[in-house]
Write a structure and sequence with these properties.
Helix content of chain B: 40-55%
Oligomer: heterotrimer
Number of helices of chain B: 10
Distance between the termini of chain B: 45 Å
CATH class of chain A: Mainly Alpha
Structural class of chain A: mainly alpha
Radius of gyration of chain A: 19 Å
Mean pLDDT of chain A: 87
Distance between the termini of chain A: 41 Å
Chains: A mainly alpha (290), B alpha/beta (247), C mainly alpha (331)
CATH topology of chain A: ABC transporter involved in vitamin B12 uptake, BtuC
Low-confidence stretches of chain B: none
CATH architecture of chain B: 3-Layer(aba) Sandwich
CATH topology of chain B: Rossmann fold
Low-confidence stretches of chain A: none
Largest interface: A-C, 45 and 42 residues
Strand order of the largest sheet of chain A: 1-2
Number of domains of chain B: 1
Number of strands of chain B: 10
Order of helices and strands of chain A: HHHHEEHHHHHHHH
Chain lengths: 290, 247, 331
């Protein structure tokens, strides 16, 4: 057993990374909770967001945090359009079809990026990129602290939005009882597209917060897809709080797995959790299936 | 042939089937009747293994089959149909029926030939190559019966095969069910169409709110005050009797 | 019988190709399409006939591929024997994965995601264990001799692949006229209704996964012997999983000739794109992704459904004809 001087930084690193994972999973869980579909293109859409942040920095000199004003709205619009124009037409009554169409979408996006931007890995340089903060004896990069705060704030904002606004209430109504919502005059297709848009918009927030401490290349989304799914099933499909807690758990599991098993084998813990949860507790650790 | 003892099923706080006892002899047609939501379909699902009972026991031909998997119970010779018809959409009528025939026949050609025979027996032979999804309601109900019949069952549980049919379609189905009985298959049916119950069955049980409240010859049951109350609401039997007295 | 004749004729024709096609370039191009047809048909058994959409068929592919490689390199076991082991392990893995997932009632998208997760787990394991050569991969000694399942001429590999593909298609032909095949379709279309007439859905799905895994494993064995090199990404990465399902979906899932149609259509499209655009990395995949989206949107039953009266549904039509003839005779 390594002592706390090694363990504590690993846990802290896991918690901050996990908060970012949670932010990515928030959009996924929202989309699942309302539309009851699994968006396999979530990772590829994150990649799109990361490239947007990168190019805004590179050509316009915009700080990734300033891009928070630009990228999330654009991603929202992209999500809204995708749901209305593509995903809603693909179901034909089988949920596998949604999985296939979003898989196709992720292949297209990823390889368009490969064609346009090559497979090179890109990063942004910021003044704060390498500064660290001392948290009880462990040094955490400032961007990760910001990301952690941003993730918590976004989850809270999302929760407040769902609870307090008319649109949020409409979304919840549709999620719970689609036919009933239709009967009381809610435009279900609009609500679906709004939910998908918000889910992808949150992904835009994640991209802005992730970019200062991470990188972008065409296949960057791969690594996040199964992680995000794992968080969603762990936290209970459709649950925001569950996603936040699930994200932190996964971050810590990954960090500790990496510490004890090495970076490559460490990832196995995430997939093991994913498989075990789906087999034995599909309602998630905290939530219930809707 | 079928012995059900103290069979019970709860869904949350609701007791859907409550201590049901019934004993079905071999041969003949019996009916299970009762108002909507009485638990008839749930009882079928319990008997055929689609739901696991919370208590009680089901014996089929002397063998305890309580809680066994549906396919095992079907292979033992007790086969149900579904109230909400469940065709294999995208497959032809012939292919649909052949799935049932395959229970005993491993050869494809034999199963398809058997499917044709069964289709003739239920009056579907003119639609053998039609996609099952394209059939009318009446056609789908016949297909449900045919698929079950193709397994050569000893006991056939028919769940509302006449619901949704018009009177002339019902008249057409009645002789089909009689012919199945005459071929030696015991039949238990759930039915709302009382005319059909009267014409077909020798014996009936009445289920209300999960409990058996009466049994006997269908005609006698139709005059039973408890049965009338179950169907029409509290006090109705008395009012009807009064009405009859005034007239 | 007519379908069998068509099948035999197609494969006999393909078998003659090496004698007619002088250029290795074209032979290789056809081999790539045949390979896609093999894994597409393997996927089709579980996905198309039994209705269990997998996103992780690379699992069985990788197990077969590593089996023959590890047995040869680490234990000196002849690859012909390795091929048997690879196929058997692929089938066993299919059954094991099926047992685990179907036992706990996973279906639809969840089944797909869990298969993907299993493939990832194996990719990580292969990346981390010494006997698979870890991240550097595993290299098989060049020894071009049929006894070592290596060939000097490309045609040797071609015929090996053709034989495996033919075996796979023949199995599906048999499946279509067997009780197991009928039960697979029944389980795919309505599991409860199938159970009500005595079909053991769990066993049927397990058999489908095993048969599917068998041919996926054999495809892996072929891959190892053809390229004499394997690494975790090649074996367990998403490429083979996606290609397998793409080929089947484009061609027409649940049809005998669909995967062949899909494989050749996709590779033809890929070649055409390469000729038009030059060697742009990613261009092929953009086209494949677009094809997948377009197919799901507009033609979910695949290319084979375009000629519904043709290859896909020949069986039903034939029976219809026979009945009409008989009726004519009765009258």
């Amino acid at each position: 057993m390594p002592d706390m001087t090694i363990l504590w930084p690993a846990i802290l690193n896991g918690v901050t990374t996990g908060a970012l994972y949670a932010l990515i999973a928030l959009g996924l869980t929202l989309i699942y909770g309302v539309l009851h579909i699994i968006n396999f293109a979530h990772g590829a859409l994150l990649m799109v967001g990361l490239y947007a942040v990168y190019f805004l920095w590179r050509f316009l000199g915009l700080d990734p945090y300033v891009s928070l004003l630009i990228v999330p709205p654009l991603m929202f619009a992209l999500g809204y359009g995708l749901q209305r124009g593509l995903i809603t037409r693909a179901g034909h009554g089988r949920d596998e079809n949604i999985l296939l169409v979003t898989l196709g979408l992720s292949i297209i996006l990823e390889n368009l990026a490969l064609m346009a931007f090559s497979s090179d890995t890109q990063t942004v340089d910021t003044a704060y990129g390498f500064s660290t903060l001392d948290v009880l004896g462990a040094f955490v990069p400032v961007p990760k602290v910001v990301a952690f705060g941003g993730a918590v704030a976004t989850a809270l904002a999302l929760w407040a939005f769902m609870a307090r606004t008319d649109l949020g209430r409409a979304i919840r109504a549709v999620a719970k009882e689609k036919k009933g919502a239709q009967l009381v005059g809610i435009d279900v297709n609009h609500v679906y597209a709004m939910s998908f848009g918000i889910g992808i918009g949150v992904l835009g927030i994640a991209a802005c917060l992730l970019m200062p401490s991470y990188y972008v290349n065409p296949s960057v989304g791969h690594g996040f897809v199964l992680i995000a799914f794992t968080i969603v099933v762990l936290g209970g499909m459709g649950s925001f709080v569950g996603a936040l807690i699930g994200g932190v758990i996964i971050g810590v599991v990954e960090a500790l797995g990496g510490l004890f098993l090495g970076a490559s084998l460490g990832q196995i813990g995430i997939f093991a959790i994913f498989i075990l949860i789906l087999l034995f507790r599909p309602q998630g650790l905290l939530g219930r299936l809707q | 042939m079928l012995e059900v003892t103290a069979l019970t099923k709860r869904f949350g706080g609701l007791v859907a089937v409550d201590g049901v006892n019934l004993s079905l002899p071999a041969g003949g047609i019996s009916a299970l009747i009762g108002p909507n939501g009485a638990g008839k379909t749930t009882l079928f699902a319990l008997i055929t293994g689609f739901h696991r009972p919370d208590g009680g026991c089901v014996r089929f031909q002397g063998r305890d089959v309580t809680g066994e998997k549906p396919f095992r119970i079907a292979r033992a010779g007790m086969v149900r149909t579904f109230q909400i018809v469940q065709p294999f959409a995208g497959q032809t009528v012939r292919e649909n029926i052949a799935v049932g025939a395959h229970m005993h026949l491993s050869d494809r050609a034999e199963a398809l030939a058997r499917a044709e025979e069964v289709a003739r027996a239920v009056g579907l032979s003119d639609r053998l190559d039609r996609d099952a999804a394209d059939l009318t309601v009446a056609g789908r109900k016949r297909l449900e019966v045919a698929r079950a019949l193709a397994t050569d069952p000893k006991l056939l549980l028919l769940d509302e095969v006449m619901a949704g049919l018009n009177p002339s379609e019902i008249r057409d189905v009645i002789p089909v069910i009689r012919a199945i009985r005459d071929s030696g298959v015991t039949i238990l049916l759930i039915e709302h169409v009382m005319q059909a119950v009267m014409e077909l069955s020798d014996h009936a049980w009445v289920l209300n709110q999960g409990r058996l409240i009466a049994e006997g010859a269908p005609r006698a049951l139709a005059a039973d005050p408890a049965v009338i109350e179950a169907y029409l609401g509290h006090g109705m039997a008395e009012r009807l009797a009064k009405g009859a007295a005034h007239a | 019988m007519k379908r069998l004749a068509v099948l035999v004729a197609i494969f006999a024709g393909l078998g003659l190709l090496p004698l007619l096609v002088g250029s290795d370039f074209w032979l290789n191009a056809i081999m790539l399409a045949l390979f896609s047809a093999l894994i597409g048909q393997a996927w089709n058994i579980a996905g198309g006939y039994a209705g269990q959409f997998s996103f992780g068929h690379a699992l069985f592919f990788g197990i077969g591929a590593y089996a023959v490689a590890v047995l040869q390199v680490d234990l000196g076991i002849n690859p012909w024997l390795g091929m048997l082991v690879g196929g058997a392990l692929g089938a066993g893995a299919g059954a094991a994965l099926g047992w685990l997932t179907f036992r706990y009632g996973l279906r639809g998208s969840y089944f797909a995601l869990v298969t993907l997760a299993f493939a990832e787990v194996f990719r990580i394991l292969a990346n981390s264990t010494p006997f698979t050569g870890a991240g550097e991969g595993i290299l098989i000694k060049l020894n071009p001799h049929p006894a070592m399942l290596q060939f000097k001429a490309l045609s040797g590999y071609y015929w090996l692949l053709l034989a495996l593909t033919f075996a796979c298609f023949l199995s599906v032909w048999w499946l279509e006229r067997s009780r197991l095949g009928a039960q697979m379709l029944a389980v795919r279309d309505n599991e409860d209704a199938a159970a009500a007439v005595g079909v053991d859905a769990f066993a049927v799905k397990l058999k489908a996964m095993a048969l599917s895994g068998l041919f996926m494993g054999l495809a892996g064995v072929f891959y190892t012997q053809r390229y004499l090199y394997l690494d975790p990404g090649l074996a367990f990465g998403p490429t083979q999983s996606v290609e397998a399902l793409l080929v089947a979906i484009v061609g027409g899932i649940g049809t005998l000739f669909g995967p062949l149609l899909g494989a050749f259509a996709l590779h033809l499209l890929g070649e055409a794109a390469q000729t038009a655009l030059g060697d742009v990395p990613g261009a092929n995949m953009v086209i494949y992704g677009t094809v997948l989206v377009v197919m799901v949107l507009f033609l979910p039953r695949g290319l084979a459904s375009l000629g519904k009266a043709g290859l896909g549904k020949a069986g039903g039509r034939r029976q219809g004809l026979r009945r009409r003839k008989r009726r004519a005779k009765d009258a």
